[in-house]
Design a protein that fits this description.
By secondary structure, the chain is an alpha/beta fold. Helices cover 33% and strands 11% of the residues.
Length: 299
């Protein structure tokens, strides 16, 4: 059986407010075939998100010239918990409506200065007129509608604290958390507009899983005419040792790329794009319409 992809790109994102390299910054791992058709790994550690977006564009342009289909994995959610778009009265497909809303709100300057805490506060105001559900901010960014700590637990009438995928991944943080260790919410707010722009620039050649591909096992026929499949990944699901001198972020992008390449080589990656047989139909629909899913979660 042919491989679905010939290259694998894993992106470890960051919501840093100033240029940063090394640990806890943006890392891009690229696993692609060399002139002898052997998989070779290279990494990039851009200091800002703007540089990272440019680098990703160059990587994808190069792979397209080589007629190589690529799987791009981002380590942040590509969707919000079910009901988010409806609660904001956003029109259209829920996942795309959320992307478009963030695109309008997020300001991310070339030096990494950004307004993610203000975005969280504004969304809280529209959702509940209170500091909920988004929470977490340094003292200078605390507002009436964004507090440094979680103000209350999620109740039956609230948006869910976790997506179905977060629960399946066991240990994934909530997107509502914007600050402190594991603040995936800040990364998601700063990352979704980037994914949206990359997708828009590549037209029909780029598909976002599971929103556009369907939440189903993928085959070569499903990806006819597709150059790029973008998906959410959770590197912590892949356990592998670091090489000497590697920072954790670099280890994670390398080993995650290698993991998906091995599965693809063994013809086991395609089925991973589908839900588990025991997954409820409603959860499948939520993932496909709004929440997204983590590739390899619950596998």
């Amino acid at each position: 059986m042919p491989r679905l992809f010939s290259a694998y790109v894993i992106v470890d994102w960051s919501a840093a407010a100033k240029p940063t390299t090394g640990a806890d910054s943006v890392w891009i791992g690229v696993l692609k075939r060399d002139v002898r058709f052997r998989l070779a790994f290279e990494s990039f550690n851009p200091a800002t998100r703007a540089e990272a977006e440019k680098r990703l564009t160059l990587i994808l342009d190069d792979l397209k010239k080589r007629s190589e289909r690529v799987l791009v994995g981002f380590d942040f959610p590509l969707g919000f918990p079910r009901g988010f778009a409806a609660a904001l009265n956003l029109p259209g497909e829920p996942w795309r409506a959320a992307w478009d809303q963030l695109d309008k709100m997020v300001k991310d300057k070339a030096d990494n200065t950004n307004n993610r805490f203000n975005v969280g506060a504004q969304l809280n105001r529209r959702l509940t007129e209170s500091p909920f559900p988004f929470w977490g901010a340094p003292p200078k960014d605390v507002q009436t509608t964004l507090q440094p700590k979680k103000t209350r637990e999620h109740g039956p009438g609230d948006l869910p604290e976790f997506r179905h995928a977060d629960l399946a991944a066991k240990g994934a943080a909530s997107i509502w958390k914007l600050y402190y260790n594991g603040s995936v919410g800040g990364q998601a707010i700063m990352g979704m507009p980037v994914v949206s722009r990359i997708k828009a620039a590549r037209g029909d050649g780029a598909k976002t899983w599971p929103f556009e591909t369907g939440f189903k096992a993928l085959t070569e026929a499903d990806l006819d005419g597709v150059d790029v499949v973008m998906a959410e990944v959770y590197p912590s699901l892949v356990k592998a040792p670091a090489l000497p001198g590697e920072v954790k972020d670099l280890t994670q992008v390398r080993t995650t790329a290698e993991f998906f390449a091995r599965l693809d080589e063994a013809d086991k990656l395609g089925p991973m794009f589908g839900p588990a047989k025991t997954m409820a139909a409603e959860a499948v629909l939520d993932a496909e319409r709004e929440e997204g899913w983590i590739l390899n979660a619950g596998a």
